[in-house]
Amino acid sequence: MVFKILSIILISINFFGITNIPNTILLLILLLIGYTKLKTKTPFTVPIYLMFIGIILSFIPAFFFRNQTILETFKASVNFFYIIFFFSLIKMQPSLKQTEKTIKYFAIIASIIYITQFFLLQKDIIFLPLPENSIEQGENVRFRILASGIFSLGYFYALNKYLILKKKEFLLIMFLCFTPILLQAFRTMIVFIFLLTIIMLFVVYSNNKLQILKYIIIAFLLCILIMQIPIFADKLTYMLEKQSTGEETFSNHDYIRWISFKYYTTDYFKSSWEYIFGSGSAYVDSNFGKQEYATAQNGIFWVDWGIIGAIWIVGPITVFSLLWFAIKTSFLRKNKTNIYIGIWYIYLIFSSITTIEFLRPGNFIIHALALYTAYKANQEYIKPQKTHNL
User: Fold this and answer.
1) What dihedral angle (degrees, nearest 10) is formed by the CA atoms of 217, 220, 221, 227?
2) Which of 36-40, 230-234, 353-357 has the lowest mean pLDDT?
3) What is the mean pLDDT of residues 56-78?
4) Full DSSP string of 165-212
5) Are 150 and 103 in contact (CB under 8 A)?
6) Which of 184, 361, 341, 157 shows the shortest CA–CA distance to 349?
7) pLDDT digit string, tens, across residues 328-367
């Protein structure tokens, strides 16, 4: 079963973009697997359907005010629809153990792929679809890959399991998953990785303050050790320099993110309806897409405002539904060995204020896997209680 799920995930993301199977075919495969379970009642069914409604409503302004066809907007929005994999998993019925193994193995595969490509780039070797200027940037390159959310999910999964089970293999997985995050050098993501790590410590060891202090000290010493590795030291220096110069911080009123915010809140919308439904996602080959490309050439991107920026594009209904199912994972009752899903979503929400990590291409297949895992963890938690009450 684990191999089957991994295969579907890899095919769905076109093996990290190496192949080029049309999205319509990939979505059709997922739909054919899970269509009989689309009405299944779960804690996430309603917010997922609300997300679909929000996305489809964003097609309307794109058609009337941006002269983009419904089909073009669908193609531009197709990333969101991969969450339908959630219902495919319900049909396949993997156990909690099997889905967690899938998270583990996929996190390892994706991390190795990323790290390998990063170092091969220094040799001018590219096997993933990357921007043309990636080779020129050398060690300063900040490329992304499809389904990159698996790095942080894998990190928190491994952290959670290590704190409970004390198996050293999870330390290795943590390091492996953290490496791509550090190599991408996003300050927000790094900061919230550390903050949510501390929060997980407090949740797991709520009654043992000495244990918390011990792990904080160990983590601090490990960070010092990791920073002795030249490539990691360079990435840290790069982030510190950006922060210290003040040019790429919110204290600078000329910071490109402030310019983007002003543009999207004062000049972007063509109708008051777009405030309600969003403008719709721009398809690259449409006139709307070409206009957005011209805007991007000036360094203005809605993705620089993450979830906030998504409100301008896919509307508040869609963003509300995303936050709904994300926050819901933290309130489902579960064992302490499974709290990593809720922690991961808290990390995604806060780190996606200035990054598009929550919505990054390929991540909705990861959302589906995470939500199904949270669903199974909740079922396993309440099952013994129901049996006891009989």
Assistant:
1) 180
2) 230-234
3) 96
4) H--THHHHHHHHHHHHHHHHT-HHHHHHHHHHHHHHHHHHTTT-HHHH
5) yes
6) 341
7) 999 998 888 899 999 999 999 999 988 899 999 999 999 9
Q: What is the dihedral of CA 336, 340, 343, 348, to 10 degrees?
A: -170
φ and ψ of 197, to 5 deg: -65, -45
Give SS3 for 300: coil
Structure tokens at 229: 């590795």
* Residue 372 and residue 89 in contact, taking contact as beta carbons nearer than 8 Å: yes
Show the tokens assigned to 317: 């209904």
Whole-angstrom CA distances from 156 to 33, 174, 321, 338 are 29, 8, 23, 10
Identify whether the C-beta of residue 163 lies closer than 8 Å to the C-beta of residue 219: no
Tokens describing residue 95: 């156990």
The whole-angstrom separation of Cα 160 and Cα 96 is 15
- 317 near 273, Cβ under 8 Å? no
Q: Which amino acid is present at 97?
A: K
For residue 360, give both structure tokens: 């990054």
Cα 306 to its chain centre, rounded Å, is 11
Token pair 């297949």 is found at 365
CA proximity to 176, closest of 224, 115, 223: 115
